[in-house]
Amino acid sequence: YVSVYKNIMEILKYKRVHMTLIDPAAQSPDRSVELAEKADKAGTDFFLIGGSTDIDSRLMDKTISGIKEKTEKQIIIFPGSRSMISRYADAIYYMMLMNSTNIDYIVGHQIGSASILKMMGIETIPMGYLIFEPGMTVGRVGNARLIGRDDENTALSYAFAAEFFGFKLLYLEAGSGAPEPVGCNVIRRIKESVKIPVIVGGGIRDYGKARSIIDAGADIIVTGTVIEKHSNPYMALKDIISAI
Ligand code: 1GP
Predict the structure, then answer these.
(1) 3-class DSSP state for residue 132?
(2) If you measure from the C-alpha of residue 224 to the centroid of ligand 1, how many angstroms do you get, rounded to a whole number?
(3) Taking phi first (over 0 means left), then psi (-120 to 50 degrees means alpha), and beta for anything else, what does residue 88 get?
(4) Distance from the CA of 130 to the center of ligand 1, in angstroms?
(5) Which residue out of 129, 130, 206, 223 has the highest number of ligand 1 atoms within 8 Å of its CB and is therefore the one to mutate?
(6) What's the number of domains the chain is made of?
(7) How confident is the model at residue 24, as a pLDDT?
(8) Structural domain boundaries enclosing 118
(9) What CATH code is carried by the domain that includes residue 52?
């Protein structure tokens, strides 16, 4: 068994990373497994399982165990609440929604799930999570005080704070299905100033967008919608992954 975080860091030594987000609330477990197989073939590096819709651990278990049977790639939980946990996952993002106005998303769900995570012995990856405009569903559900997509100074203050807190990853989120991802100037500025690997997600739907985000310095890109909505998810994803 290889630590997921170590694995991410090893891969980052020679290339950027692509993660595929699958939301178990968006389709049946069978369909989730089918999408995961396509993403695996297209060359994704890791799976993120989660989303903003609260789902119980049974649906998490069913989706994750199904995907695990079909791929060797590691699976990370991207939780929207304390109940989105599964013993079949390889790791969980133990995240703080840093710009939430709701204490539950800053530290409440984290405390609510701590004992069970400890009991399960699952790898927890400390991550700062920032939501930018337009924020979409996760911005609303997470009660986020949205950061402007070009607001470098505010973003940078959060990034420094993430570093001081000791987070191992920093996720810049525009919201699933956002028309535009986080601004490239923001990504570039953060990469110039902090050492934590930066994840960018929300609104990445084609090669061009992926390319500019990678050129701005993002270490990891996440796509979700493209595989759910595209008529040819395999080709669409392969194209995006070619940008890394
Ligand atoms: C959402 O960043 C992810 O948390 C993915 O967004 O669905 O727009 O690819 P998309």
Answers:
(1) strand
(2) 5
(3) alpha
(4) 13
(5) 223
(6) 1
(7) 96
(8) 4-242
(9) 3.20.20.390
